[in-house]
Amino acid sequence: MRISWNEVRDADEYEYEYTNVEPDYTLSGQTDKLSTLLTQLDGSSEYQWKVRVAPGEPWHSRWSDPWSFFTALGKPPWAPTLYTPGGIWQYSGINVELMPAFSWESANKADSYQFVLADNAEFTSPLANKRVPESAYQLDFELEYNSNYFWRVRAYKGNVAISRWSDIGAFTTIAEPAPPSPTPTPSPTPTLTVEPIITPTPIPPWALIAIIAIGVALIVAVIALIVRTRRAV
Question: Is the pTM of this model over 0.85?
């Protein structure tokens, strides 16, 4: 990695420092040029550097504002651990809802993560491939019922990947619910016909007395007829 800076009038030598942010260590050097090649760099690391006129050459200046860069040499040593669904908690990869929430291990130096979701472990024609700012992502579309899906993430700082791809997380969505049973048609309710109860009209007292009197008169007449008949004989 070569760093360079503007010339300062009358300066004979420049002092530079560059620091690996994590782990924190600093290297320095001097040169009479307006650039220098930094060779003691680690792969996939963030560095900050600054420069000033070296003391006594013939005078010294304040340090410049720090500048930063990222190295992409070699294979990043770290990969995020996937949590849910279907990450280290494997039970979470069964009967997953159609719009799941994904979560994974965060990286201190990362400012974004690349999230990829596909219906195959080779990630051909991914269903989602986007950069997200947090170590979690809520899917914004529905997946298919009873289907297998695969996902992975890696960490970024700026436009530089600072991690390897994570292991692949796998999960299966819920089964399609059975259609509701049809509501049975109720049987018609039979119509009951109620016959009216006819209450006999009560006989008035005066009519009852008349009936009794007529009956008595008839009895008396019959007795009298019988007596007369016997005398004639």
Answer: no
